[in-house]
Design a protein that fits this description.
mainly alpha, 11 helices
Length: 262
């Protein structure tokens, strides 16, 4: 009986330890408190300020647009890379998989700094063009799309595209009719992950962004150097719940796929 209680208590304790700070942050985002422990009243003023202040509104919209653009590009590149590796020879596919793992396990500070040197110093691309920022987020996200699509390709029956071509489809038509529907859940999961990584990234954005634009994480970091304001609570809460929503959508997509396959 005691062991059963302990087995149930330990996971609850871990969840409380992980999520209690976030819940406290979310609670204070609906107050006028400037510091923890000094709640006077509840209000939506912090969120109203975020979306009515032009500078903050433009920053939020810019961060979302950046995440959308970079996730779409990363999804295309990651999917093409996974398909190319899948139909390559075993040794070539192994080499591509190994190369893909480097950005995943490499330190973000190394990736961000090296991209800054390559794009800004070597190629002379100005940070004010947003090109280094977009490329940096694509480099960060594309390997994860590759990792999401590859298992779906391995689960697919290799004879499906061949059967489609035997029935008169061109290779391109066979891809869209046979291969793409099979790997679509992996593509959706990879795109959601790419969007989340872009939305949440700080290190690579710090090295590749210019003075004319700040992403949400960079803005929050810069605000912590000064006095902590209630707007910071609201910003952090928005990021958390957007990422949580994307995670739930990804899990629901996977569950729907499993039920359909059964």
């Amino acid at each position: 009986m005691r062991n059963r209680i302990l087995r149930g208590f330990i996971p609850v304790l871990v969840l409380v330890f992980l999520y209690a700070p976030i819940l406290i942050l979310a609670l204070y985002s609906f107050t006028d408190a400037t510091q923890i422990g000094a709640i006077r009243s509840f209000t939506l003023k912090n969120y109203v300020t975020l979306f009515t202040t032009e500078e903050l509104r433009d920053m939020i919209i810019g961060t979302i647009v950046l995440a959308l653009v970079s996730s779409v590009i990363a999804t295309i590149l990651g999917t093409l890379g996974a398909i190319g590796a899948f139909y390559s020879r075993k040794r070539t596919a192994g080499a591509i998989s190994t190369i893909n793992q480097v950005p995943v396990i490499n330190a973000d500070v190394v990736t961000g700094f090296s991209l800054c040197i390559l794009l800004v110093v070597v190629f002379g691309i100005s940070k004010s063009t947003y090109i280094p920022l977009v490329i940096g987020h694509v480099v960060l996200s594309a390997p994860f799309v590759y990792l999401s699509v590859t298992p779906k390709l391995k689960q697919m029956d290799r004879s499906l595209p061949e059967a489609a071509m035997d029935l008169g489809c061109t290779p391109m038509r066979a891809f869209f009719k046979a291969t793409l529907p099979e790997i679509m859940p992996g593509i959706i999961t990879g795109m959601l992950m790419a969007f989340t990584l872009s939305l949440d990234d700080f290190v690579i954005s710090y090295f590749t962004t210019g003075n004319s634009f700040q992403t949400l994480p960079i803005r929050i970091y810069n605000m912590t150097k000064k006095t902590v304001t209630p707007k910071m609570y609201a910003l952090a809460t928005i990021i958390f719940f957007v990422i949580l929503a994307l995670l739930l959508i990804s899990n629901l997509t996977d569950q729907g796929e499993k039920q359909a396959s059964e």
